[in-house]
Amino acid sequence: MTSPLTQFRPERVPATSLRDLAAQLHLTPAGDPCVVDSPASSPTSTPASSPASTDVPVTGVTVASDAVVPGDVFVGVPGFTAHGARFAPAAVAAGAVAVVTDAAGAALLPADLGAPVLLHDDPRAVAGVLADVVYGGPSDRLTTVGVTGTNGKTTTTYFVEAALRAGLGTSALMGTVELRIGDQGVESPRTTVEAPALHRLMAVALERGVTNLTTEVSSHAIALHRLAGVRFDVVAFTNLQRDHLDFHGDMESYFAVKASLFAPGQAARGVVVVDDEWGRRLAATSPIPVASLATHLDAPDAERADWRVVSADIGLDGVGSTFDLRGPDGAVHTAFSPLPGLVNVSNAATAIVVAVSAGVPIDVAIDAVARVTAIPGRMERVVERGQGLALCIVDYAHTPDALVYALEAVRPITPGRLVLVLGSDGDRDQGKRPMLGEIAARLADVVVVTDENPRSEVPGTIRAAILDGAREVRPDLTDVVEIEAGRAAALRHAMDLTREGDTVIVTGKGHEPTQEIAGVFHRYNDRDVYLEHARTLLRDRA
Ligand SMILES: CC(=O)N[C@H]1[C@@H](OP(=O)(O)OP(=O)(O)OC[C@H]2O[C@@H](n3ccc(=O)[nH]c3=O)[C@H](O)[C@@H]2O)O[C@H](CO)[C@@H](O)[C@@H]1O[C@H](C)C(=O)N[C@@H](C)C(=O)N[C@H](CCC(=O)O)C(=O)O
Ligand SMILES: Nc1ncnc2c1ncn2[C@@H]1O[C@H](COP(=O)(O)OP(=O)(O)OP(=O)(O)O)[C@@H](O)[C@H]1O
Predict the structure, then answer these.
(1) Which ligand minimizes its atom distance to the CA of 351?
(2) Residue 231 CA to chain centroid, in angstroms?
(3) Could you tell me if residue 26 is left (phi over 0), alpha (psi between -120 and 50 degrees) or otherwise beta?
(4) Three-state DSSP class for residue 145
(5) Probe ligand 1: pick from 66, 87, 157, 247, max atoms within 8 Å of CB?
(6) Which of 143, 140, 142, 180 is nearest to 158 (CA)?
C-alpha cells in the first residue's frame, strides 16, 4: 500500500553529487578495495553493476522501494523481517540512482543491478544523515520541536503547534494522528515517520512558507534512528510509564532510549517534566541544557523545578482547567488547559514552557494553548450530555497509568455511573492486560470488555486476561460484561445501559481509523459508532 506520505515531495531539490555524498558520509563503493576505510564495511561479495565509482546527481533519499522517485538514493536497511537490499532491484526500476546498504545487503544484490552501490556499517543510521544533506539541512531552517514520553505526546504536540503557530507563523505538525503542513493534513502512517520522510516533509514545509515544525518522537523512532540528521531546537519529555516492553525489554532500556534524544547534536535544549523519577533522572543527567517543570502539585522536589504548576482548578464542567504556572523568575502566570483532567494541565504547562523555550512570548503561548479545540481521540467529547443521552468520550489511554488518569479525569464530571469500554492490543505487551482489567474494575462503575486490535492473537484470550484482572477487584464480575460480537457492539451495549447523568468512555484506540484483526485492517472508528448509535437512540426515544 502506498503511504499517504508520498504526496509530500519537495518540488525543487538541488542535485547533490553521489561522489560528494560518499566522501562526506564515509560511504565506501562496493567492490572497490582501495577505498574501503572501515573494516566492518568490507563487502563479502562484489555486486557488479555500473562501476561503484560512477558519479550521479542525487535529489532524494528513501528506505522504502515503493516510495522511490527518479533521482533517489535507495537505502537498503537490515529489517526485522527482511533485508531492504532485497528490494533494491525494484527501487532501481523505479528510478533509484544508487543503493546504499551494508555488507550483508550487498551480498544480496544481483550482478546486473544497474546502479552504483555504496556501503555503510549502519544503513538505518546513515539514511537520515544522507537525507539531511540531500534535502539541504531543513531542520536548521525551521524552528523544530520534538516531544517524547510514554503518554501525552500527541496532546502536547497539538498544544505546542498552536503556540508556535501563534508566535512564529505557519506551522507543520507530525505525529500519530496526522501529518500536517500548513493547512494540508493527511493520515499519519505512524507516530514518527522514517528519517528520509521526515527530512523530506521539512523540505516541503519550507517550500510552503512554514517556519516551525512540531513532531512526536516515539521510542521506536529513536531506537531505529528515525531522527538521524535532525537538529531540534527544543526536545521535551513528558513521562515514562509501562509500555512497549515487548520492544525495549525493560524500563531501564526504555528510559535509556528516550534519554538519548537529549544529546548534543540532536537537540539544542530540552524541557523535562520532573513529576516521575524518570524525569528527575533525565533532568539531573541531561548533557544538554534543560528546563525542569513540575506539574503535579505533590511531586517530590517540585519547589526545586525551574517551572512549577502551583495551583490547578480542574473544573467540573468537563471542558478544561485553569492553573497557575510559576516561571524561573518567580512570576506566576494564569493559564488554561482546554481538555479535562490533571494530565492535560500537565500537557498544557509542558507546551507553554516548550513554546517559551522556542522563542514564543509566554502570553502568546498561554492564549494559543487555551484556544485549542478537540484533539482527535484524546479526551474527545463526541456525544454531549443531554436529550436523555450520556456524555460519550473517546480516549487513547492504552497503558495502565494513562487509564487511571483518564478515569480520574472523567469521574468528577460524571454525576451518574461511569461506564468504561476497553480492550487491549494483540501482539503487544501481554503483562498490562490484567493490570488494565484491575484498574477498570476499581475505577469504573460498569466495565464492558471488548477487542482493540487483536492482530494475530485469538481475541478471547486477550479479553480473558483483562477479565482475570477485573476479578481481583470483583471476584464475581458484577457489572463487568464481556462482549464477543465486536467493538462496535460493545460501544452500542454501553450506550444502551446509560442515562443522561452517566458517562461512557471508550479507551485504547483514540483516533485510529482502522481495527487490525487477523492481519486485515478494517475501517473502524469509535467516534463514528458513537454518533451513529446516538442518532438511533434519539430516533427510538422520540
Ligand atoms: C518494529 C518497527 O518499528 N519496525 C520498523 C522496521 O520494520 P522492519 O525492520 O520489520 O522492516 P522490514 O519489513 O524487515 O523491511 C526492511 C526494509 O525494507 C523495506 N522494504 C520492505 C518491503 C518492500 O516491498 N520494499 C522495501 O523497500 C522497508 O521499508 C524497510 O526499510 O523498519 C521499517 C522501515 O524501515 C518500519 O516501517 C517498521 O515500522 C513498523 C511498520 C511499525 O509498525 N513500527 C511501529 C512498532 C512503530 O514504529 N511504532 C511507533 C509508535 C509506538 C507507539 O508509541 O505506540 C511509531 O513511531 O509509529
Ligand atoms: N501527561 C500525561 N500523563 C499520563 N497520561 C496521559 C498524559 N496525557 C495524556 N495521557 C493519557 O494518555 C493517552 C494518550 O495520550 P496522547 O495520545 O497525548 O499520548 P501519546 O504519547 O501520543 O500516546 P501514543 O504514543 O500511544 O500515541 C490519553 O488519551 C490520556 O488518556
Answers:
(1) 2
(2) 18
(3) left
(4) strand
(5) 87
(6) 180
Alpha-carbon torsion (97, 95, 101, 111), positive or negative: negative
Are the C-beta atoms of residues 424 and 465 closer than 8 Å to each other?
A: yes
Question: Is 472:440 a contact under the CB 8 Å cutoff?
Answer: no
**According to the annotation, is 431 in a ligand binding site?**
no
Q: How confident is the model at residue 380 (pLDDT cuts 50, 70, 90)?
A: very high
452, three cell numbers? 482493540
Residue 211, annotated ligand binder? no
> All 3 cell numbers of residue 300?
517530590
Q: Return the DSSP state at 33.
A: G
The count of residues in the chain is: 542
pLDDT of residue 33: 41
The angle, 0 to 180 degrees and rounded to 10, between the axes of the packed helices 195-207 and 123-134 is 10
CB 338 within 8 A of CB 371: yes
Quote the cell numbers at residue 124.
538505518
Residue 216 CA: nearest ligand 1 atom is 57
The strands making up 171-174's β-sheet, listed across from edge to edge, are 184-187, 178-181, 171-174, 212-216, 143-148, 232-237, 267-273, 290-294, 307-313, 321-326, 332-337
Q: Does residue 215's CB lie within 6 angstroms of at least one atom of ligand 2?
A: no
Give 146's strand partners: 215, 235
ipTM: 0.94
Q: Phi and psi of 69, rounded to 5°?
A: -125, 160
Q: How far does residue 224's CA lie from ligand 1's centre (Å)?
A: 9
- Tens-place pLDDT, residues 55-70: 899 999 999 999 999 9
Q: Does residue 395 have its Cβ closer than 6 Å to ligand 2?
A: yes
- In order of 350, 353, 428, 508, the CA distances from 330 in angstroms are 17, 14, 45, 39
Q: Whole-angstrom Cα distance, residue 293 to residue 109?
A: 51
Q: Ligand 2: which of 337, 396, 398 to mutate, judged by most atoms within 8 Å of the beta carbon?
A: 396
Instruction: Confirm or reject: Cβ of 64 under 6 Å from ligand 1.
Output: yes
Strands (E), 21-71: 28-29, 57-58, 60-62
* Cα dihedral sign, 141-155-329-276: negative
CA 310 to chain centre: 29
- Which pLDDT band, with edges at 50, 70 and 90, does 4 fall under? low
Beta strand 171-174 with 178-181 is antiparallel
* pTM given for the model: 0.88
C-alpha 511 to ligand 1 mean position (Å): 21
Rounded distance between C-alpha atoms, residue 182 and residue 205, angstroms: 8
Ligand 2 centre to CA of 205 (Å) is: 26
For the chain, domains (ranges, CATH) are: 16-29+53-134 (3.40.1390.10), 137-370 (3.40.1190.10), 380-541 (3.90.190.20)
